Amino acid sequence: MSHNKRMGMTTLWTYRMNSLSRLLLLLTMAAASPWLVPADTAFSEQQDKEKPQEKSSPQPHQPPVGPDTQPAPPKLSTEPKPQPHVAPPAKTDGPPDRDAAKEKEPAKEKEPVKEKEAAKKPVVSLILAVKLTLLADSRLFHYEIEAGEDQQTITLTGRVSSEEEKAAASDIARTVPGVKAVINKLDVSKELAQALTKKQDDLITQLIKERFGKSTTLKAANFEVKTEEGIVSLSGAVRFQVIALEAAEAARHVPGVRAVKTENVRLEGEG
Description:
Layout: H1 3-32, H2 39-50, H3 98-104, H4 113-120, H5 126-135, E1 145-150, E2 153-160, H6 163-174, E3 181-188, H7 190-213, H8 216-221, E4 224-228, E5 231-238, H9 241-252, E6 259-267
Parallel strand pairs: 2-3, 5-6
Antiparallel strand pairs: 1-2, 4-5
C-alpha cells in the first residue's frame, strides 16, 4: 500500500470518528437538557401551552365509604317544585253567565236617580225671592215686611206708612216668578213714618258725634248735635270760626245728612 493511500484512509477514518463523536455528544446533551429538543417539538409544545385550558368544576370531596360508614342523608332541595299545568276551561259558544259577571264586577254604590236630579237643580225659596225683591224698592226699603208661603201663595205681614206703599208691596210680590197669589196683611200706620224718621235722625246724630271724637280740635270744642229729618244743628262756643267750619264739613260726610246749621255756634268773647 502506498503512502498516499494510507494517508487517505487515515483521514477518512478520522472524519468518521469525529462525526460519531459529535453525534454522541448531541445525544448526551439532549438527554441532560430539555431545551435542546428539536424546533418542531418545542413549537408544538408552546402552542399547547398558549391554548386556554378549560376550567374544570371542582368535584366535591367524598369521604371513602367503608363497611361501618353510614350514608349521608339526602339534601332537601330549595328549588320550587313545578306546579301542574291546569288547562283553561273550554269556551262555549253560548252567552256568558250574567250572574258570574256581576260577581266579578266591583261593588258600586248606586245613588237614587231622584237625588241626582235634585242635586242638579238649584235650591230656590219663594220667601227669600219675595223679600229680596221688596228690599230692592226704595219706597219699601225702610220697612220690616215679613213674607210667608203656602202652595205658591205669598202672605205679607208688617207695617207701612201709607195705602200707596201697601199696594206697591202686593204689586212687587206678584212679579216674582213662581208666585200665583198674594195675600196682603200689611197694617197702615201714619205714625210709622215719624218713628222711622226719628230713628234715622238718632242714627245720624250718633255717627256725627263719633266723627267729632276722632278729631282733637272738635272733641275739645264739645259741640251739641241735634238732627231733625236729616237736618243737623250744631251749638257751642269756639275761639275761632274755622273750628265751626271744620265741624260742619265733618257732619256733611255722614250718610243721611241733608243740611248742617251753625247759627247757634258763637265765638268766645262775644256778648
